[in-house]
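User: Um, what's this?
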Amino acid sequence: MDGIVKKQFSEMETYIPGRPIEKVKEQYGLERVIKLASNESPLGPMPAALDAIKKYSSQLNRYPDIEATILRDTLAKYYKLPRENFLIGNGSNELLRIAGQAVLGKGDEVIFAEPSFVVYRMVADFFEAKSVPVDLKNHTHDLEAMLAAITEKTKLIFICNPNNPTGTMVSRTEVEDFINKVPEGVLVVVDEAYAEFVEERDAYPLDLNYSVNKPIIVTRTFSKLYGLAGLRIGYGVAPPSYVAVDQRIRDPFNVNLLAQVAATVSLDDKGEAQKRYQQNLDNKRYLYKGLKEVGLDFVSSQTNFILIDLKKDSTLVFEKLLEKGVIVRTGEIFTERYRNYIRVSIGSKEEIDIFLEAIKTI
């Protein structure tokens, strides 16, 4: 396809997901495999979501509501903000890409932390923009350095908060101060995919009021706490003028019917959400304790995963863990400087025990 496909698509790196469970079972002849690589919920969808999926599955011959009206109304009520401020995406990833599509041209610059979510670099590549990675400081966003990296060519800045893969966060005050210092003509996207897991709620409140009527987009997802990763649905908050642009760019019927109804009832079940938050917190502390007993250092996390320092090549450990039926994420995928790290999702206590037992023998 040389000479037909655009050069940037022929040369850009492909997104590498966590290894599928069935492939690992087949490759190593295993009956039991646990996946702690993709920060998925060990609990599955909420019971109310499963009921809604069953109820509405007979309507799959119909196109979904193109404006996701009921879900946007539910989000508006939940956050006490106007419906006109809400975006709905095919996963929050789609919202990140559309942001790039809306503002980037060839040669424009995109600033993001490194390591951080790999999709930010992909967004830059999609639109022939230049990636400007800024090193983390103590595994955390260095917002001052990111401000210093802004030039007249900067059009888009991504802040992953809490950060993937390190699990660290910057406070709401720090984010707002940063936004206030960003010059006009630059769009800031704050990716809060892991917001619901944050412990430090005083420094990181869950409201979205700070995002209204500012040149920023805040994105969140139903993939993590709510357990709907397989349905691909996320949302964002932005000024109504940007929401109108998003609606022009996105694909028609971009979010399927079952995703919309499952997300709506999940958001309504605050009791189940709190239960899941607490279980993640308890299991995270359980994993902390186990890692200390094994003698492994790790980065304290505000999310549903932990970054662990193996002090040796993580790719070698990764392969040995696969042989024992444990799938994790290696650090060199994010940046070569993190080659000695693995990222491990916080699974059930049973899964944590299996991981700890496996890592002891490597």
User: Anything to note?
Assistant: The chain has a mean pLDDT of 95. The first helix runs from residue 7 to 11. The first strand starts at residue 34 and ends at 35. The chain has 13 helices and 13 strands.
